[in-house]
Specification:
The chain has 399 residues and is α+β, with helices and mostly antiparallel strands. It contains 12 helices and 19 strands. It is 33% helix and 26% strand. The structure holds adenosine-5'-diphosphate (ADP) and magnesium ion (MG).
């Protein structure tokens, strides 16, 4: 293996990248939000609701967005749907720059064909049957032969399990069924992207589960689904969870590595951490080296390597996105107990490095995090000891 350490390179800005997925070049994403700022002005003055958001969402991903009430979730979704417009910055959806290259009427035509929108309060027209509600967007986007529409709408109601209710008015079915019908309507023009703002916020758990199952099925079929929710039990079921705090995005690696922090603290770590990039195979920390940071993995994978009796390398663990290293040395003092290297057979490794003082300040502010990390350090040290005794490979958990 190549042992030569190379110069560590610092990248000043890396847009939030999907964890665990490779590169994704220009135009490949379903959604690309670049430095989006949204300022609302009213009599009381100016209010910055989105403070420079960078976000890419890949095709075929199921993404949840969470955040406290008023943190900017709906405003962010409105930037994607074109319902509102950014004060500055760029939004590309399905390869189209939806603000600089389109006027309002182009945008609403584009919206009708490219995305389905689902709201918390269904917004079905009360005087129309479920079937007629589902047919409405087909008319607006001038999609499908007129005679084909009822058949197609019925097919969509079948997909969500509502054929038998097709001719009922919205108020004649349950709220869960109304939301399923609203999703069928959102799918009327077969858009590649579905955007939902708290779609289960007004539903019981059973109905909420039916909605999630439907979203999972749509994602399996290749659609991209972006869902704002305040239900933490739903975020476990999505590919990616994005946290917004006070108009800023929290780095996903920080949220995964330090889940017990408050959103405000996660955001502070996101802003304090330096971003570092290493090439495949590059040494990140040498054995016996002084460690001055807590490292969270944002992309790629690293190997933890101990030295065997004959000074051979023994790879004892492989850590990936959301996992971390350096905490043993920071909490116990002293030098590195192992070396850490970017895996040779992977892509570049992106790390977020929180400096020693910032790390200790953070633990003072979050006793829960301190306690958890303390337990992990204990476990890692015991595992390393038992490995030293056995002098051989032993699988070790990263966290
Ligand atoms: N049209 C508007 N004019 C002025 N302020 C707004 C407007 N829309 C939203 N806001 C403010 O922006 C902040 C974020 O709102 P929103 O995106 O709806 O939050 P969330 O969906 O996370 O609850 C809130 O403080 C809200 O009052
Ligand atoms: Mg909202």
């Amino acid at each position: 293996m190549d042992q030569t350490p190379r110069q560590l390179s610092t990248v000043s800005s890396i847009s939030s990248s999907p964890l665990g997925k490779g590169g994704g070049g220009e135009g490949a994403s379903m959604i690309d939000i670049r430095n989006v700022v949204k300022i609302f002005k009213n009599a009381a003055g100016e209010f910055t609701v989105l403070k420079g958001i960078d976000l890419s969402i890949e095709r075929g991903q199921f993404v949840s967005i969470v955040g406290k009430s008023g943190s900017g979730k709906s405003t962010l979704l409105n930037m994607i749907t074109g319902i509102d417009h950014p004060t500055s910055g760029q939004v590309l959806v399905n390869g189209t720059d939806i603000y600089t290259k389109m006027d309002e009427s182009d945008r609403s035509l584009w919206r009708g064909k490219n995305l389905g929108i689902v709201f918390q309060f269904f917004q079905l027209l009360p005087m129309l049957s479920l079937l007629e509600n589902v047919m409405l967007p087909m008319d607006y986007a001038k999609i499908d032969d007129f005679d084909e529409r009822p058949k197609r709408a019925m097919g969509l109601l079948g997909l969500v399990g509502l054929e038998k209710q097709a001719h009922k008015l919205p108020l004649a079915v349950s709220t869960g069924q109304q939301q399923l019908a609203a999703i069928a309507r959102a799918l009327a023009t077969n858009p590649p992207l579905l955007v939902a703002d708290e779609p289960t916020g007004n539903l019981d758990t059973h109905s909420a589960n039916a909605i999630l199952l439907l979203f999972e099925q749509l994602v399996d079929e290749g659609k991209t689904v972006v869902m704002v929710t305040h239900d933490p039990s739903l975020t476990d079921r999505t590919d990616r969870n994005i946290i917004i705090s006070d108009g800023d995005l929290i780095d996903e690696a920080v949220a995964l590595a330090l889940p017990l922090l408050k959103h405000r603290q996660m955001l502070a770590v996101t802003k304090l951490a330096r971003r570092l990039v290493f090439d495949p195979g590059q040494l990140i920390i040498g054995r016996e080296e002084h460690v001055d940071s807590f490292f969270m993995i944002a992309r790629g994978a690293v190997e933890i390597i101990l030295q065997g009796k004959k000074h051979e390398d023994i790879s004892i663990a492989r850590l990936g996105p959301g996992q971390y290293f350096g905490e043993v040395e920071l909490l116990r003092g002293g030098k590195s107990i192992a070396s850490v290297r970017a895996v040779a057979d992977g892509g570049p490794v992106e790390l977020l490095a929180l400096q020693r003082d910032d790390f200790h300040n953070l633990l003072r502010e979050s006793p829960l995090t301190e306690e958890t990390l303390g337990q992990i350090v204990q476990r890692r040290l015991e595992e390393n000891k038992s490995m030293d005794r056995r002098g051989g490979f032993l699988g070790r958990l990263g966290k």
